[in-house]
Task: structure prediction
Amino acid sequence: MDAFISKKRRRISDVSSPSARTGQQHDHEETTEMKLALLASLHPDITQDTLLEALLSEDGQVDKASDSLADRATSLGPPKRAKTVGHQSTLGNLIRAAGGELLSSRPLTKKGKTLFLYSPKDIETHTPCSIIHNFLPTHEANALLEELLHESKTFEKETFQLFDRTVESPHTMSFYVDSFKEVEEQKTTYVYNGSQIKDIRQTPSKMLSASAKVRQAVNLEIQRRIAQFYPDGKKLRYQDPKEWKPNTAFVNCYDGPKESVGYHSDQLTYLGPRAVIGSLSLGVAREFRVRKIVPRDVNDESEDAGAADSQGQISIHLPHNSLLVMHAEMQETWKHSIAPTTAIDPHPIAGNKRINVTYRYYKPNFHPKFTPKCHCKIPTVLRCVQKKSENLGRYMWMCHASYTPGQKGCTFFKWAEFDDDGEPPWKDIVEQSTGVSKWHV
Result:
């Protein structure tokens, strides 16, 4: 596990090699910590905060940062000597001054670059996520992995329509709910990408047992996030103040290094605004990439790969038996992905496979019998405006039938309204009614 949380310090012989001195050969793969350690070995008399400033100013390129530091030393004379030069386990030790203040307000991500984060402290500081390593007892994690590996043999790829083309997801998956009654309801009532999912399964025993532990851990993480990271220690607007109670889960299987999923935000339709998701990783370790959404112009219909490049991205290492919590600010303002890679380290049980269980809380007030229906007579999808306009950040109900192969969809649109706790205007009616709400349109 140490290898996942912090990098080992290079030997002197490594640093003295030509490739280590220039930092060019593996520059795109090295973490910020490794780059700082390399700079520290080349400039032992310079403080860590100065090294970081130089690295940031040169877009993470070690050779240019080293040249800049050398030029500065020539022009300014002998620099202040650092008291110690040692191994850094987190970025927090490097970007804070002795008094605890942040040395720079500039983001650590840079255009066209990937920042690799490993320690829980760095992850929760620089992303809208938190992580718990070694989440389950080892025997429970391995037993759950074996249970889901057996299940995954019959997983299928999702098929949907995008820009008049029928495409397949680059990995297999299935959807789970906790009771047989919910299985039948999902098959007949809930709609995903404009159509119903056929492969709905009842949660197996070990996965259900893990769900109870995920529920407890995620609720603790939510409260800690609010207290330590949100303004004035208060929840976000539209964030649900009540307990998070997972009752559904998408289980994804990534078989080999090439299977992946592109940048996306998870659908909020049945979760409501400011949703929280608990993601349990089992088997092969993979990199979870996140990037902040850069709002584009309203008339810009191009794909947003360029937007990803404009701010860079952050890579979070997800080893076996790690629980990642995507907090309430994640889905509206960030996107995430599992990137394909050239190689992976096989897992002793899973081989080349990674199993990912994403626990979600489907809220009663967002049941499809209460949410608006479009002109196609199907429940609409809840989206958040992510383009530059006066409506940036607003929510809307829209038709999504066009995602079903062979379907055109309709032009239905309606602004979504919620109270400060993220509840829809039909909340009181839901509590009093067992039928279809008058809020249907």
Notes: The chain has three domains: 2-106, 131-364, 372-432. The mean pLDDT is 81. The radius of gyration is 24 Å.
